[in-house]
């Protein structure tokens, strides 16, 4: 019985660590914004994230309109800069620093 409990706890630990590393990251989103979008948008990350509340960013993300909204706010953004592989990170960044969050990014 003791072995089964240890194996179950070990598996749970491995799964939780794996899940957290596979998820998107607001810090990575901030770095991506600074690298790929900041010049095209002509505004800081704080100004960009502050364009919407956290709830509005969530709605845009859930409805699959995040890339479209980024292009609306920043018309000179290239399609490659809002590729699907970046959107989760952008969303986490914008959500964390939305206008009603009280958080201020460093970029």
Describe the fold and architecture.
This protein is mainly α. 67% of the residues lie in helices and 0% in strands. It contains six helices and no strands. The protein has helices at 2-22, 26-41, 45-49, 54-62, 66-73, 84-96. The chain is elongated. The model is unreliable at 18-22 (pLDDT under 50).
Summarize the structure.
The protein is mostly helical and 107 residues long. It has helices spanning 2-22, 26-41, 45-49, 54-62, 66-73, 84-96. Helices cover 67% and strands 0% of the residues.
Proportion of residues in extended strands = under 5%
Work out the number of β strands. 0
Q: What profile does the largest beta sheet have? A: none
Euclidean distance between termini CA atoms: 53 Å
Which residue ranges are poorly predicted, with pLDDT under 50 across at least 5 consecutive positions?
Answer: 18-22
Helical coverage, percent range: 55-70%
Q: Compute the gyration radius: what is it?
A: 17 Å
Helix-strand topology string? HHHHHH
| Average of pLDDT | 85
């Amino acid at each position: 019985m003791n072995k089964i409990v240890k194996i179950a706890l070990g598996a749970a630990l491995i799964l939780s660590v794996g899940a957290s590393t596979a998820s998107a990251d607001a810090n990575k989103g901030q770095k991506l914004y600074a690298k790929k979008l900041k010049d095209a948008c002509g505004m800081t990350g704080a100004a960009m994230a502050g364009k919407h509340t956290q709830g509005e960013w969530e709605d845009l993300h859930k409805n699959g309109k995040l890339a479209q909204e980024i292009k609306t706010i920043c018309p000179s953004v290239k399609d490659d800069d809002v590729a699907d592989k970046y959107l989760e990170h952008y969303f986490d960044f914008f959500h964390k620093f939305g206008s009603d969050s009280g958080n201020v990014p460093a970029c």
